[in-house]
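Q: I have 476 residues here and want to know how they pack in 3D. Can you give me a structure?
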Amino acid sequence: MSSHDQREPEAELGLLDATMIGMGAMIGAGIFVLTGLAAEISGPAALLVFMLNGVVTAFTGLSYAELASAIPKSGGGYAFVREIFDDFGSFMMGWMLWFAYMIAGALYALGFAPNFLELLHVYGVVAPPDQVGAVVLPLIGVGIPAKFLLAFVAVAGLVAMNAASTAASGSAETVFTIVKVSILVVFVAFGFLSAGGGETSFTFQNFDPLFPEGGGAFSILPAMGLTFIAFEGYDLITTVTEEVENPRENIPKAIFVSLGATVLVYLLVVTVAIGTLGAAELAAAGEAGIAEAATSFMPTDVPIIQNGGALIVFGAVFSTITALNAVVIASSRVAFSMGREGQLLPSIGRIHYRFGTPFVAVLLSAVVMLGSVFLPTQSAGNMSSLFFLLSFIIVNVAVIRLRRERPNMNRPYEIPYYPVPPILAIVLNAILAVVLIGFLLRTDLLALLLSVGWLGAGAVMYVALNKLRARGTAEE
């Protein structure tokens, strides 16, 4: 191996950049797309759905913080599991986590397309998104649906930036995340200020009764399982550990700040959306629920912005782009870490001698991400939620095993009241996973079959790579 191949990642990201990677992923398309879904299943109790998901994921956040402070390696949950589990177990964890990030990336890319088209429509550039036809590519004369073309362009642009510079991708994530959080803060402020101002003004009466008829309090569980992906994001911070300054201290801080701020933003946005539209109208509006709520109470004569709905669409464009950028970063770092550990091809685990980025890992992740764009959107989202729930269970098991087998390990941050938080996290994540699997058996069998298929492909890949390595060793 040449000296070029041995280059290590450079610490070019500060605490703010690391925090924004987490918030950029969590405050993504989820807050716009999933709010209506949660309201459809659990009515006004959608507010409790997001609050309880925040509590459940916070327990796992404590485990990520301790493990990141003790094992300052890039790769996130895979790097932690690799430290304590056997070869096959750690490979399957990395394989599952890598795919979960890439599927999430495909979802965010597909979420970007209609929002971008809607933004152009607001300003009279194109027809409504559902009326925009295929775009015929020059030279080859093949027509591609506009949403797929825009998804490809978004992924390609962010991949190019991530392949060329870690600092640039981190800075872009910070700027975009600050913009979209500012937009949501404006939405919340106008929502509460509208109280008592008319038919669509904010009122707490929209939360009475809290639970829907027929479903009751138990309606919260399936809604929590289906919207859990909205809280996937703080774990992305640990995938770039070696590229963050003073990671043992900054990674735990970034996890807690990003998770706390995201939960607060979610609760405020959901409260305003239900308080103004009501759960039934919010559910009926679907993906456009937040935008419809904004249109109902925000000013309609704002220069440039035009109206509240346009502002939210603008925010949705930023949200999907930042979430997409975050998972491009995360998926490539998991693949890079697996390659460096010898669990994928060696070229995947090398830093580019010129750009200082995991160049091959970025490109490979992008190829799979673009292929995932053609999966049914709902099935892809369900697969991603299931894989994240399973990976969080494994990470919590890892923190317990590491405490037991290496009690004297340097841990700058330690979980308070151990072992209660990781045990609670395992139990709660397992309950949500079982509820989600039961829900998918009834409504989305394709997602389960694809999930099992990916894990089966991983087992085959593990055996094939081991045989390849054994053959190479024998020939030397």
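Q: Anything worth noting?
A: Confidence is low (pLDDT under 50) at residues 1-5. The two ends are 15 Å apart (CA to CA).
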